[in-house]
Amino acid sequence: MKSAPPWPTELVFKRNDKRLAIAFDDGARFEIPYELLRVESPSAEVRGHGAGPLPAISGKADVGVLEAAPVGRYAVRIGFDDGHNTGLYSWEFLYELGRDVKARMDAHKKRIGAR
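User: That's the sequence. What structure does it adopt?
Assistant: Structure tokens below.
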């Protein structure tokens, strides 16, 4: 039998640091840069409607979060100050982003050609 995925116990949007601090009931704690949340948005606008590599989205290093709203009991919708607000971030997806934050940020920087 598959165990339940980790459940969030705390979400704190740190405006000055431009990071989401998130804690889960398994003891994991992560800080996810807003930039990563924005460029890896699970929305069709960012990911398209099929499988494939993530697009290179530059110019989001200073993106801010304007709002966040729960979606049922499984996700949060995040509204960014660049107008993007269609991504539904499931708890499982946020856990994966947090767990893999360094590798994903490195891959993002490589996609946009940043050092």
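Helices lie at 34-39, 44-47, 91-99, 101-112.
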